[in-house]
Hints:
The protein is mainly α. The chain folds into two domains: about 5-70 and about 185-255, Helix-hairpin-Helix base-excision DNA repair enzymes (C-terminal) (Endonuclease Iii, domain 2); about 75-180, Endonuclease III, domain 1, CATH 1.10.340.30. The protein has 14 helices and no strands. The protein has helices at about 5-10, 15, 35-50, 60-65, 80-90, 95-110, 115-120, 120-130, 135-150, 160-165, 170-180, 190-200, 210-220, 225-235. It is globular and about 60 Å long. The two termini are about 30 Å apart. Mean pLDDT is about 90; it is low at about 265-279. It binds iron/sulfur cluster (SF4). Iron/sulfur cluster binds next to loops. Iron/sulfur cluster binds near residues 238 and 252.
Amino acid sequence: MSRIKDLIGRGDLERVFVPLLPLFPQAFTYIKGELLERVWPAVKAILEENGIDTNGDRDALIRDLMKEDPVELASEIDSDPFKTLIRTILSARSKDEQTIKVSSALFKHYDTAEKLAAAPPEKVEEIIKPIGFYRAKTRSVQGAARMLMDTFGGEVPGKYRNLLELPGVGPKVANCVLVYAFGIPAIPVDTHVHRIVNRWGLVETTDPEKTCDQLMEILPREWWLVINDLLIRFGKEICKPITPLCGDKCPLDEICPKVIVKNKPRGKTKVAKKGKESK
Ligand code: SF4
């Protein structure tokens, strides 16, 4: 049985990613054109195995499936570049549910760079206080808003190097903005993506930035837009940080080497012993 790294190495990405799509259908948002045509027969087969009628209109079926997605992500709320930028800065070390709540409250008062730049810092702090690190995050979001006004004409730039100039923006935030606000292929690597691709043995890295660099070399560009969204969902529900649901609950169980999985999973799986988990 080929493992994930071998499959991806020989270009058979469908074997790895397609089994996840019916479980986390919101990721279809980023699968279009030729890629959709290519993956659809295999997705259809999985849906039919699970008793879902696939004979009707494909787009309508995908839309219906998307409504059933078990995970709500901050990134999917809207694609306004300003809101995506601010929400992603706020999301550091915070749960998506909390980020969505707090950022929505913030945007009720300050929904443009101009308004946020001019807001009293104590008012911003008061609104975002529930997510923690609120003083530092206030400095970051207001600093970013001011730089957008002073340097970028009030607009969020669509270039990676310009995004990195903004306070509070590192590679992950910059890549998130490219993907979720502009639809520009990039691979934002957060803790879920980093953990999962290391468990798969696809990379062997100790920090998300190196993971990002290696993934961009390994994965074909047509999959870049999908990776972050799909793997965050998968990481929240199945390949969880502390106790991954290896075994029957994971569709990749047979092809996953489970590198650095410390907690012995329930069920039939074998656990590889290789080093220690870094995150
Ligand atoms: S088998 Fe376990 S470690 Fe591998 S992807 Fe599934 S849940 Fe994650």
